[in-house]
C-alpha cells in the first residue's frame, strides 16, 4: 500500500480493520489445527479496490452485519462495527483455505477499500486458453472438482458437472442465481472466490 503511494489514513484504516478481523478469528477458533489466514489482493471491477480477507475454519454461521456504531467505551464486541465504519464494503461467505496442507472448508470475512488510482494494465494479454487453465488450477488447488471442456469456440471450466464457467472475450461468465456473473480475466482471485462461495453455499443448502 505504501508502494502504491496511498494516503496514510487509508493505510491506517486498513491496518485497524484487518487487525480487528484477525484478532477475532484468532480468539475464537473452530479448528485450532487450521490457523486463520489473511489474504489481500487487487480487484478491478466494478471499481479499483484492495480486498482484505480473513479466513477461519468456523462454518457454524456467517457473521451478521453490525447495526450500531462502534462504542469507544466498550472493550469487546466492536470489531465488525469498526470495520464497517472504516471500509467501503464488508461481506462474509463460505470458502476454503489457501495455505493449509489440504483445503479446509470455512468462511471468510472481508472488507474492501476503493483506490483512486487506476491499476496498471497487464504486461501481456491474457488469452482465453490461459485464463481457463489458470481458473482450473486455482479451483483444483482449493479442493474443487473441475475440468476443461470445449464447446463451440469457447473453452469452459465445468465445476462438479453442474456449474459451467466460460472463458470468453476477456472475461469469465456463468449463470447463477440471481443472475449472470462476469469477472475480467485479470480478476482471477475474485472469480475463484465467487465460484467457491457458490459451490459451498449450494452444498450447505443440500445438507
UniProtKB/TrEMBL annotation:
<keyword id="KW-0547">Nucleotide-binding</keyword>
<keyword id="KW-0067">ATP-binding</keyword>
<protein>
    <submittedName>
        <fullName>ATP-binding protein</fullName>
    </submittedName>
</protein>
<dbReference type="InterPro" id="IPR036890">
    <property type="entry name" value="HATPase_C_sf"/>
</dbReference>
<dbReference type="InterPro" id="IPR050267">
    <property type="entry name" value="Anti-sigma-factor_SerPK"/>
</dbReference>
<dbReference type="GO" id="GO:0005524">
    <property type="term" value="F:ATP binding"/>
</dbReference>
